[in-house]
C-alpha cells in the first residue's frame, strides 16, 4: 500500500478511479431531476453502479492485501451491473420498450446472476482472475484475468455496443446537430482503448478503465449537455416536424423538415420564438393547439404538442407538429354541415311550432321515443315521463286507443294518416281533443328510392290542439241551425204573407209586397249556402278517384231546368277521373248560377273539361260584362267582404269547396266575359 502512495503513477491511478467515482455520485442529484421516469431510472442506476465500482477500484489499492480480492470482486459485480443500467437507459432514451419487456428482463436477470455467481466464487475456482505481485509501473498486486473474465468482458462490450447503437441511431435520425452529443457519448468507449493498451504493454496496468468513461459521459449528460441530450431524444421519437425551445422561449434547434414546412424558421436559432413564430409560441403556452400555414392553394393545419425535458431544474420544450390538414378540412366541413343542420333544425322547429302544438315520435312497438318540450303544457307530462311509455298512457278509452293503433299500423306500412277530434287524457285526468298528422320515418341509411315499409323505424306525430276549433265549429253549427230552422221558418211565414198581400193589393203596395218576397227568397238562398258550407267545412278530407263527367252533366241539366234562358255549350270527354269528392258539383253549381243571374238578359256559358297528365281542368267561360274585383277576390283568395255577403254566400261556398278538396282555381276577366278554371289533381295511381 505504501508503494502505491509513494509513486506519482500510483497516486495518479488512485486519483483517477476515486475522482471517477466521486463524479458519478455528484451527478446523481441532478440526474434524479430528469422528468422522464424511465430515462431517470436508467441514468441514475448507471451512475450509482459506476460510482461504487470506482470507489472499490480505489479501495483495491488502499486496503490490506487480504481484502484486496474481495474489494475487486465487489467492484466487478457493480461494474457488470453498470452494463444493464446502461442498456435500460439506452432503451428508454431511444423510445424502445425493451426495458419494459418482462421476458427480456427475466432473461437479463438470469444472465446477470450467472455471471455474478462466477465472479463471486472466483476464490474457489480461480478461473476469473488471479493475483500476483508486480513492480511496474509501481509495486502493487496485479490482477491476472483468466479466460472466463475475457468471455464476460467481451459479452459486456457487446451489450454496451448495442446500447451505443440505440443512442447513435437517435442522433442520426433526429436531423439535429448532435456532434457534441456524439462526442460525449463516445467517451463511454474510450476506456476500451486503455484496456487494449494495458493488455499489449506494461505501460498501463490491466485494471478495466470503464468507470473513467462513464464519469466523462456523466459530466456531459448531466452537467453540460443534459437539456440538449433529452430534447434530441424526445424530438427523434416525436416525428419529423420538431423544434426545441429553452426556458427563455428562445429557439435552440429545429429539424430540417421543420424549415421545409416553415421557411421563416431558417437561421432563427437563438431568436425568440415569439418574434419568429408567434402562433407556435401561443400553442406552446396552451392558448391554442393548432397552427396554420398558407404555403399553397389550401392552408395546412398542424396539431402542436409540447413535451418538457430537463435536468437539474432547467427545462427544455420539444414542440412537435403533426399534419392534420385533411382531418381539419373534414372537421371544418363537419362544422359547416352542423351549422347548416342547426339552421334547418331551427327552421323545422319554427315551422312545427307555428303549425303544430307539439310533436311525438313513436317507435314500432307503440312507445314514445321523443316528446317535444311544448307537450308538457298541453298533456301535463314532462317529456322524460312520457319517453319509453306506451301510447295507451294518453288513451281516453278503448275505442280511441284502437283508432290510434290502426292509424299507426297504416303509417308503419309506409302511408301517411290524419286523425281529427281524437280524445286524449292529460295527466290531471282531463279529456281534451287533438288533430294529428302521422308520417313515417325511415332508416336514414336506406336511400329514398329503395325504401320499403320494412325500413320504417318510427312514426312522427304532429299534433294540433283541436279545442279552439271544436269550440269555433260548435258555434258555427249553432248559427247554422239558427239559419236553417229559425230563420228559414220565419222567412217561410214572411214570404207566404207577402205573396198573399201581393195577390190582394194593387199599385205601389203590390210592388212592395213582391219586393219583400224577392228579399225573402235571397235570404233563403243565403241560409241554404251557409248550410252547405257547414256541411263541407272539413279542411282535409280523404279524397277519392271520381269521374267528374256525370257530375258536370247533372249540374248542366239542373242549370237548364232552373234557368232555361241560359245558352249552354260543352266540350266534354267520355270520362275524366280526378282525385276529389262529389261535392265539387256543388261548387260548379254555385259558379254556373252566378253566371245565370249576373251576366245579363241572355247569358251564354261554355263548359269544357280537359284531361292533362297531372290534372283535370274544368273551365267555365261566359260572355258577360266581367266579374267584379270583389267577387274575384272571393274566388281566388276567399276574401270576405260585407258587400259580397250581402249578395250571397255562393261564391264563398265555391271557393271553400275547391280549396278543401286540394284543387286550384284561376279567374281571368275582361269586358267581354269571365273565364274560371278549376284544376283538379289526378289520382297518383292513374295512368
Automatic annotation (TrEMBL):
Q: Tell me where in this chain the Histidine kinase domain is found.
A: 482-684
Q: What is its EC number?
A: 2.7.13.3
What the entry lists under SUPFAM superfamilies is as follows: ATPase domain of HSP90 chaperone/DNA topoisomerase II/histidine kinase, PYP-like sensor domain (PAS domain)
* Entry's Gene Ontology molecular function annotations: kinase activity
| Protein's UniProt keywords contain Nucleus | no
- The PAS domain is annotated at 344-415
In its keyword annotation, does this UniProt entry include Glycoprotein?
no
The family database entries (SMART domains) matched by this protein are listed as: HATPase_c (SM00387), PAS (SM00091)
Record key words, sorted? Kinase, Membrane, Transferase, Transmembrane, Transmembrane helix
Q: Which residues cross the membrane?
A: 12-31, 43-63, 69-90, 147-168, 180-201, 207-226
Enumerate the catalysed reactions. Answer: ATP + protein L-histidine = ADP + protein N-phospho-L-histidine
- Catalytic class of the enzyme: transferase
- PANTHER family annotated for this entry? BACTERIOPHYTOCHROME, TWO-COMPONENT HISTIDINE KINASE
* Protein name (record): histidine kinase
Taxonomy, top ranks, is: Archaea, Methanobacteriati, Methanobacteriota, Stenosarchaea group, Halobacteria
